[in-house]
């Protein structure tokens, strides 16, 4: 089969698209004929290399994909050939204390398809049945292949970890990014007053069209000062910050007393300076969040499938142009997700 491969960590020139061995389907796995996938900033980090990663090369990346079931392992009962499915990338052991207590995202062996093990940016992918969800007829492959990671991540961040309630206020940084544009829609759906940042008129208009009540261009105005002005110096109840080093202190400054900063990553750096006096004096909470439980995935994806939430699509490219897809993500061109499809599907 044809697959995207990185041959070593480095720049976009380490990305190839070519022959790769057909996957072997284990007894608890499903063979998926991939129709579409999508990039996340995670794919850029995997390509560049992370201190915690030790991957066998060549490595097939990709955590988002959707397609048709081609075959199933002997222990699989939830799916059968011909079913339409999407990938949910978080893999847990099922046996540790956290898994047994009902939250596999806290699994001591938690890992992601495409990051720690072989991913799904290929013509075919063997995926554990537990990592697949059904895609209804009528949902296009672009939507199905682009939605699961960012919407489950944003849903858990706001609804579960931040305990967002109707009537509260939320600031979403980077509202045009994958998680950001999902978070704007979810915060609006939850009944919050939504503040959003972006870097262009087009990105801010998209945020307004999808639930933001107030927007600011962070390249023209400091967003923390803007929040203090907009809220009469009160601040917001929740800040969604997946950017990290460049925004962390201003995110903390933007919070009201007893506010919550919730994060799922640090795309601009993972070791920011912080503001301990403001944290303890205003009794703030810093909350981490990773992916979503199967129940949370089902809840939010039902709202994607019925059109309540809408993934923004920057571009649709053949997998052979994966290097260009990485450049779009790294260059912050446009907003939303970059979708990739096997060349044989175009």
Automatic annotation (TrEMBL):
CDD domains: Zn_ADH_like1. SMART domains: PKS_ER. Gene3D superfamilies: Medium-chain alcohol dehydrogenases, catalytic domain. Keywords: NADP. One of its GO terms (biological process) is small molecule metabolic process. Residues 10-340 form the Enoyl reductase (ER) domain. SUPFAM superfamilies: GroES-like (SSF50129), NAD(P)-binding Rossmann-fold domains (SSF51735). One of its GO terms (molecular function) is oxidoreductase activity, acting on the CH-OH group of donors, NAD or NADP as acceptor. Pfam families: ADH_N (PF08240), ADH_zinc_N (PF00107). Transmembrane segments: none annotated. It comes from the Archaea. This is Zinc-binding dehydrogenase.
